[in-house]
Amino acid sequence: MKKCEKFIIIANELKDKDLKQSEMLADYIKSKGKSVSIFSVRDYNEEAGIDDDSFESGDMVIVMGGDGTMLRVSHLIENHDIPMIGVNLGTVGFLTEVNVADVKTMVDRMIDGDYRIEERKKLKGTILRDGEIIHDNIHALNDAVLGRESMLKLIGFKIYLNGEFFDECEADGVIIATPTGSTGYNLSAGGPIVNPGASLLVMTPISPYSLSMRSVIFGEGDEISLELVDKRHNGQNKALISFDGYMNVTMNIGDIAKVRVSDKSLKLVRLDNASVYEILRRKLGA
To answer: For residues 22 and 9, is the Cβ–Cβ distance under 8 A?
Structure first.
């Protein structure tokens, strides 16, 4: 792979207090004669000085945090053809690749071009109201989750596949996950684990009021449409659809969310030669 000369570190300052770990990593990169820039994120709404120009001259983005930080950064670099690797400062860390103790080896290998890249497919969402698009080209690495906005009541929605009626459901919500996101909320809700290299979508209901509603896997060319309906005829059905927990849109009765596999993908750096199934076994403690 390409030998890295210019590094960009993006740190979650809530996990890397005072950016101590990031600063030490930056010092090591500089000691190797390479350039490095450091930026910080606090949450999904705060990025210190990061804009599109921040990624123009970089060869590699190193994320200091957990899976949530990785998801946030995946949106920041969405329009840039730059690979990303994560240093785990969180808990499980399905997306992160390296522990803090191994960061020097990580840098050495990236400088030597000794790494591989996995292309992770994203999903694309479009929201319609009264037949008009109100949000378009929303991309997510993990999932799109339609759920209750506030009240502790089930929401009703119809599901269409490629424009044809598929099912109708009352539930706490529904998850549409990418293969990467299959080990996240989808897994917690009882959905299947999917090889992250696949190009497909997994739909998993959240606590459905049904004996038959189960997870379904859809192909790369399928489009899933979720229409919020007034199933109980009380006019109180209101929901929120969230893309990676980042882009959140309130949905009213009659609104439709369309989700399909995106043409965008994330370049995720891997150093470990273990299979995806071995990594899952380690992470899940099976």
So the answer is: yes
Q: Report the alpha-carbon distance of residue 120 to residue 17 in Å, rounded.
A: 30
pTM: 0.89
- Give the CB-side neighbour count of residue 37, counting CA atoms within 13 A: 16
Q: Which of 16, 27, 51, 67 is catalytic?
A: 67
The residue whose two tokens read 């539930």 is 171
Q: What is the pLDDT along the chain (286 residues), one digit of tens a residue?
A: 889 999 999 999 889 989 999 999 999 999 999 999 999 887 555 555 576 666 777 899 999 998 889 999 999 898 888 999 999 987 767 788 888 889 999 999 999 999 999 999 999 999 999 999 999 999 999 999 999 887 678 899 999 999 999 999 999 999 999 999 998 899 999 999 998 889 999 999 999 988 888 999 999 999 999 999 987 666 667 899 999 988 899 999 999 999 999 999 999 999 977 666 777 777 666 5
Kindly report the number of other CB atoms within 10 A of residue 13's CB atom.
Answer: 18
DSSP 25-73: HHHHHHHTT-EEEEEEEEETTEEES--GGGGTT-SEEEEEE-HHHHHHH
The reply to whether 67 belongs to the active site is yes
Cβ atoms within 10 Å, residue 279: 16
The rounded distance, in Å, linking the Cα atoms of 75 and 15 is 19
Strands 173-177 and 143-148: antiparallel
DSSP 8-state class, residue 24: H
> How far apart are alpha carbons 262 and 220 in whole angstroms?
9
